[in-house]
Write a structure and sequence with these properties.
disordered C terminus; 6 helices; about 150 residues; 4-stranded mixed beta sheet; single chain
């Protein structure tokens, strides 16, 4: 019988083969934008779509790294109708998944659309530099003690 106390991370490791274990993600936004997945680094200029990179940036800064699908469409395509914005969202989601995931099978580990919610890294560890030392929306600490 399976141990009910297994964490989500442990369940993820158990259900994947060693070649399919997803790697931790680090999002760097201070001093330039880049994303690292394990040892692989995706620089800002390597994204095939500016909107796909913006999608990742917005999710990285969002509470719990989640944004409702319609909210994301409003943020990225405010002048488009719902159908056109939805088509653009799915295209940007596809491009972002391809950039993040080393294999198509792992793409939902990094970027998922479930129950109308877009989620960044729901199955893998995520670190965002802009959120690491302070709460988003407050002033970052300064080198002279905050003065």
């Amino acid at each position: 019988m399976a141990n009910p106390r297994l964490t989500t991370w442990n369940k993820h490791i158990l259900r994947t083969s060693p070649a399919q274990v997803s790697e931790a993600v680090r999002v760097r936004m201070l001093g330039g934008f880049s994303v690292s997945v394990g040892t692989r680094i995706i620089e800002e200029g390597e994204w095939h779509s500016r909107k796909a990179a913006c999608l990742v940036k917005l999710l990285a800064l969002a509470p719990n790294h989640r944004v409702h699908r319609e909210r994301m469409m409003d943020l990225l395509w405010p002048d488009l109708g719902p159908k056109a914005a939805a088509n653009n969202l799915y295209q940007a989601l596809h491009v972002a998944r391809r950039a993040l995931a080393p294999t198509p099978a792992a793409s939902s580990d990094y970027l998922r659309l479930r129950s109308e919610q877009l989620e960044l890294c729901p199955e893998v560890p995520l670190w965002v530099d802009a959120k690491a030392g302070w709460t988003f929306g407050t002033r970052p600490p300064t080198s002279n003690g905050g003065a």
